[in-house]
Amino acid sequence: MNHYLSIVATTRNDNHGGDLLKRTTAFVTGIFDQSKKWDFPVELLIVEWNPPAGEKLLHEVLPKPEADSKVTLKYVVVPQEVHNTYKNAKNIPLYQMIAKNVGIRRASGEYILCTNIDILFSDECFKFFADKKFQNGIYYRANRCDIPKEVMDLNTLPERLEYASANIIKRLGKSQGHESLVLPSVVYRFPRVTKFLNDLVLKIWAKYKKGQFPHFTLDFDACGDFTLMSRTDWEKMEGYPELDMYSIHIDSMGLWAANALGIKQFILPYNAPIYHIYHEDGWESVDALRTIKFLESKPSLDYSIVFKGGLQIIESQKSWGFNKENWGLIDVELPEYNFERSA
User: Fold this and answer.
1) Predicted confidence (pLDDT) per residue in 83-121, tens digit
2) Which of these, 104, 326, 74, lies nearest to 231 by C-alpha position?
3) Range of the domain at 60
4) Residue 238's CB: how many other CB atoms inside 10 A?
5) What 8-state DSSP symbol labels residue 66?
């Protein structure tokens, strides 16, 4: 069954960040509820990378679509023996961007959203999906709002979304139409003024930086949590670069590649964000020392070299060129578990 939109995420049953199953359940059931609310069928594809020995597979413990669901749920499992073929497999239990490539190449959607399992979509965001106004040649970004993990203590999605909108810890991302500006939020209450300033910055850049790409307009903030484009465009750029490294900044490399190939940016409206359920683990921890310790044993990219490389591929109008034809492990037969929605 083909879909207008496939939502791709990856995880494994290792309790990463604490309450992983609880966060993933909130993610999955939120999509169930919103697809039904907006009468919008979607495919949800979860890539389960390197399942821990002795733990149940995710399809055994996460909710299934009900009989009247609008969601087709698919799990694709990348087993440990495949994971172990990577040289840094011991220190990187989940190759996030390679796993998302696995999902991209197996998704049925005309458009594909790559996101993460600790996300709730605002109703305005999901309605944007349901309006079916996506275009080929454009990639879509949304602001990410971090929210307290206590949102999971609430029982229904409306309660969770109401709590989320009222308890934003911080917002990441640029504003639609104001991509070249970094201003105090109060200034954006005056759209004519901000549009004038935004256009002025771009005119000054065009005059004094003739022919140079305005890289500062790109919305890299938390782009691993929300990047959406057509299947055609994902295939054109060969998904994310498949590097045997921790995933930090590889999501940004995807946006650089999209722009190098002429795929344009569109940022969803300010009132259509996604909500990120905050957790302590990972490189984004508020504790810098904890972040350093987290990255100690994981080879990872420094953004300065990604930036230089990004400008280089923009100039050449080519993608990174790192991936082989079989990117996304498309030549590997992987176990799949499918839970079809009703017709």
Assistant:
1) 999 999 999 999 999 999 999 999 999 999 999 999 999
2) 104
3) 3-173+219-339
4) 22
5) P
